[in-house]
């Protein structure tokens, strides 16, 4: 039994962005009347400043859970803020970015080197060449959000089927976040990517002993009972070897590589990943997926993303090559975004919490509190 995984915004064709307009500000605005965000990606190829009038702070932030945003980012949601109408990026900045036509109205821009989602260009009317242009910024690229982003809520929750990340973040700094099933008045004009596609098999006997037999045996179907050692210690399968572990990471590296506030990883044995639904074509990073692009963020740490839409796809470490971290936002599980029949979630904490302090301490604190509540809910169901 397999779950198709597609690193593309191909399902649920929504244009799913809220928009808040603001008055234009004169060129003579004094420096002390503005706040300047510093924005960057993990490789440093894209580094710029966003100056906002202090009267417009805090900016409103949203988590979009639509299928399109999940598949485009690889995360369980896109974390985004909408910049005032007077903001316009420098032409030289836009020329350094790579664009993906997210919808007829929206072009999503990312760093072509590391794949970090940076910003989006939005028009009110795609059919009108003179339509007003506004810009969004992914919050994970910003240097300081704790007091300058006011989180509003989760949108397009109906796409998740199971609540998705909204169950892991209920409130921020005492403010309860809204939960919207969709968004009124939006058109369905999503354009597909489809650049990366692969399949994951459910845990098998080979999954248990993958550390001992891989890479000599690259497919789970190649493993027999005689390959199993007398005893084995393993940490990469949960729930009686029926589920892969999954968890949230708050480290700066993952944030700056993706552009979202938290990354969501499933830890899957290499031999349980295939290029075909039947499981006959073993997965290999070097061949088989033309659009998969690699960025080495530090010695021995490799990140892979879709070269078309910049979806974060994989993380691979040289010290555990038998294991692959897969972005949960790419899973197409029938039961919902959290893929609960496939994944056993770590609910005790978010990894590398220390990296969120003080930059996004309020947000990460809300995640920690909600994870504990969700853990109690899961325990009550068992």
Automatic annotation (TrEMBL):
Domain of life from the UniProt record: Eukaryota
Keyword ATP-binding in record: no
GO molecular function, one term: carbon-sulfur lyase activity
Alphabetical keyword list: Lyase, Metal-binding, Zinc
Source organism (scientific name): Cercospora berteroae
PANTHER family cross-referenced by the UniProt entry: DUF636 DOMAIN PROTEIN (AFU_ORTHOLOGUE AFUA_2G12650), GFA DOMAIN-CONTAINING PROTEIN
Gene3D superfamilies tied to this protein: glutathione-dependent formaldehyde- activating enzyme (gfa)
Protein family membership: Belongs to the Gfa family.
Native organism taxonomy: Eukaryota, Fungi, Dikarya, Ascomycota, Pezizomycotina
Domain CENP-V/GFA: 37-155
Listed name of the protein: CENP-V/GFA domain-containing protein
């Amino acid at each position: 039994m397999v779950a198709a995984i597609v690193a593309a915004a191909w399902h649920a064709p929504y244009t799913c962005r809220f928009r808040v307009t603001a008055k234009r500000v004169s060129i003579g605005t004094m420096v002390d009347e503005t706040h300047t965000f510093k924005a960057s990606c993990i490789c440093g190829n894209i580094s710029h400043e966003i100056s906002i009038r202090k009267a417009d702070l805090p900016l409103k932030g949203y988590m979009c859970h639509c299928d399109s945003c999940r598949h485009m980012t690889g995360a369980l949601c896109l974390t985004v803020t909408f910049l005032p109408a007077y903001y316009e990026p420098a032409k030289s900045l836009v020329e350094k970015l790579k664009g993906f036509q997210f919808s007829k109205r929206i072009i999503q821009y990312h760093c072509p080197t590391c794949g970090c989602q940076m910003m989006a260009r939005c028009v009110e009317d795609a059919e009108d060449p003179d339509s007003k242009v506004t810009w969004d910024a992914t919050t994970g690229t910003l240097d300081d959000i704790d007091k300058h982003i006011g989180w509003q809520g989760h949108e397009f929750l109906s796409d998740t089927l199971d609540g998705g990340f909204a169950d892991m973040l209920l409130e921020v700094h005492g403010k309860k976040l809204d939960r919207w099933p969709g968004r009124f008045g939006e058109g369905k004009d999503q354009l597909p990517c489809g650049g990366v596609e692969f399949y994951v098999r459910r845990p098998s006997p080979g999954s248990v002993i993958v550390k001992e037999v891989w890479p000599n045996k690259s497919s789970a179907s190649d493993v027999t009972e005689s390959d199993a050692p007398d005893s084995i210690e393993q940490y990469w399968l949960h729930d009686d070897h029926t589920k892969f572990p999954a968890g949230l990471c708050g480290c700066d590296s993952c944030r700056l590589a993706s552009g979202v506030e938290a990354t969501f990883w499933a830890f899957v044995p290499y031999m349980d990943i295939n290029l075909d639904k039947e499981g006959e074509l073993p997965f290999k990073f070097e061949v088989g997926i033309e659009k998969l692009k690699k960025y080495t963020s530090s010695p021995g740490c490799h990140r892979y993303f879709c070269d078309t839409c910049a979806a974060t796809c994989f993380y691979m470490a040289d010290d555990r090559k038998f294991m692959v971290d897969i972005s949960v936002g790419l899973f197409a599980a029938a039961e919902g975004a959290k893929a609960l029949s496939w994944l056993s979630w770590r609910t005790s904490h978010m990894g590398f919490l220390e990296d969120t302090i003080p930059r996004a301490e309020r947000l990460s604190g809300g995640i920690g509190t909600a994870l504990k509540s969700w853990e109690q809910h899961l325990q009550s169901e068992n």
